[in-house]
């Protein structure tokens, strides 16, 4: 597992200094994940990352994905702010697609990999409770062979 920066779990303040606070766009932490291969990374803004909740926005460019697949210690809804996102579970082969104004729920412990097959950047609001990764950190790789099954395209695509 990869080491995560110290601001995860400590933004906008450490757990022992919690208080209501307005987080402006200028205050949000900006990072690319994962750092290894920028062609398979996404652009991220951390809104809040505490010991109880992670909230952020990430963006996938047209044709973009992130690699390796990710897994979290809490439930994770994706609310699609812009564009269309396809999420695959490499462990089960399940594939789902959501468009702007729709959401995808990724349960705790479910591997996932998102794709943007559309012509515009996709923006996704993400929340993970209790926190983005457990003590072992972010995954370096997917432990197995990825399963992908056929995904039907609807008439309105």
Overall description:
By secondary structure, this protein is mainly beta. The protein has one domain (15-128): Sandwich (Jelly Rolls), CATH 2.60.120.10. Helices cover 0% and strands 32% of the residues. It is built from no helices and nine strands. It has strands spanning 29-33, 42-49, 54-60, 76-82, 84-88, 95-99, 103-106, 113-115, 122-128. It has a six-stranded antiparallel β-sheet, with no helix packed on it. A hairpin with an 8-residue loop joins strand 1 and strand 2 (42-49).
CATH homologous superfamily grouping = Jelly Rolls
Helix-strand sequence: EEEEEEEEE
Identify the CATH architecture: Sandwich
Percent helix, as a range, is under 10%
Task: Say how many strands there are.
Answer: 9
Number of helices: 0
Beta-strand portion reads 25-35%
The averaged pLDDT comes out at 88
Uncertain segments of ≥5 residues (pLDDT<50)? none
CATH class: Mainly Beta
Tell the overall outline: globular
Estimated structural class: mainly beta
The radius of gyration over CA amounts to 15 Å
Spatial strand sequence of the major β-sheet: 1-2-3-9-4-7
Number of domains: 1
The end-to-end span amounts to 37 Å
What is the CATH T-level topology?
Jelly Rolls
Largest sheet geometry: 6 strands, antiparallel
């Amino acid at each position: 597992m990869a080491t995560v920066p110290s601001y995860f779990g400590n933004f906008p303040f450490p757990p022992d200094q919690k208080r209501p606070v307005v987080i402006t766009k200028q205050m949000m932490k900006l990072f690319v994940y994962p750092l290894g291969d920028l062609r398979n990374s996404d652009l991220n803004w951390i809104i809040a990352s505490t010991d109880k909740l992670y909230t952020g926005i990430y963006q996938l460019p047209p044709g973009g994905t992130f690699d390796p697949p990710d897994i979290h210690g809490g439930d994770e809804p994706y609310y699609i702010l812009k564009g269309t996102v396809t999420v695959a579970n490499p462990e089960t082969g399940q594939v789902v697609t959501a468009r702007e104004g729709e959401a995808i729920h990724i349960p705790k412990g479910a591997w996932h990999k998102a794709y943007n097959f559309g012509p515009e950047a996709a923006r996704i609001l993400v929340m993970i409770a209790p926190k983005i990764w457990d003590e072992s950190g972010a995954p370096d790789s997917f432990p197995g062979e990825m399963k992908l099954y056929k995904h039907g395209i609807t008439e309105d695509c």
